[in-house]
Amino acid sequence: MQTSDLDGINNLLLRHDIHRDWVTIRLSSRAKRLIFKSSVIKGVEIVIPHAAKAPWVLEMTQKRIPWIQQAERRVRDGRSQLNPAQIDLKALGETWSVTFENTDKGRNGLLVSGDYALTVGLNPKDVFYAARNLQKWFQQKARASLIPWVASLAENRSLKYKKIYVKNQVSLWGSCSKKRNINLNRNLLFLPKYLVEYVLHHELTHLEHLNHSGEFWRSFSRVLPDCKDLRRELRSIKPDDIPLWASPGLDSV
Question: Which domain holds residue 39?
């Protein structure tokens, strides 16, 4: 199949009122089959093997039109979360209001006012522009909040660490290395304060016991007697509970 053959698929989508802004069609030399997939971040994707015949691809795409329409709606609805009206940082007890504008001043990034208010620039050509600027603010906010928080708890427990890193992690809330470096997920700020303290004390306890041995849990329990109950509560939190605009996947979009 050639690039010129894609016009037929584009016309098919247009006839069914499927907006091309939500759909990516690409030819692949590696794909072994015709692939239809979707995600809120990447949108609807149609991946076509180079060896595929144009009439067959058009026929198969026609059969998948109902699925593509549903996927387009899911993407459109999901992306509405990219521009939140407010940001609730439960760990800090802060709620920030967010407004968006297309002014030249706004397009330069993000403005912060002292009364928990953010003004974020919009770029009509880039749906993820505002979210990426929110992430820059959020990264700074997380570092300014979590690093002193850990330092204070470590001092109270007379524990020494080497460095603290705040990252945009996909699955881990925190970790502690053999070099005594502590890594923290910036999305901790969306959790209640008591769960954040669980994670911070958990990683600090690893400075004493690097594994999850019985001795680790005994030591941890002396600091947080209900640590195992808190562990179960933390594990019940799903990735969907984190706002889309803060998703690690936006880093590569």
Answer: 3-80
Write down the H helix ranges in 112-174. 129-156
Structure tokens at 11: 């016309």
Whether residue 68 is found in the same domain as residue 191: no
Name the burial class of residue 127, with classes exposed (0-12), middle (13-18) and buried (19+) by CB atoms within 10 angstroms of its CB. middle
SS3 234: helix
- Cα-Cα end-to-end distance for the chain: 27
Q: Which of 80, 113, 141 is the last residue of a domain?
A: 80
* Amino acid of residue 146: L
Q: Say what the pTM is.
A: 0.80
| 106 and 205 housed in the same domain | yes
Q: What torsion, rounded to 10 degrees, do the Cα atoms 138, 139, 145, 147 define? A: 170
Q: Which residue in this structure is represented by tokens 């109902």?
A: 66
Residues 117 and 229 in one domain: yes
Give the residue-averaged pLDDT of 85-98: 96
Residue 164 is classified by DSSP as E
Contact, 160 vs 134, CB < 8 A? no
Query: What pLDDT digit, counting tens, does each position of 122-161 carry?
Result: 887 788 888 988 999 999 999 999 999 999 999 999 999 9
How many structural domains is the chain composed of?
A: 2
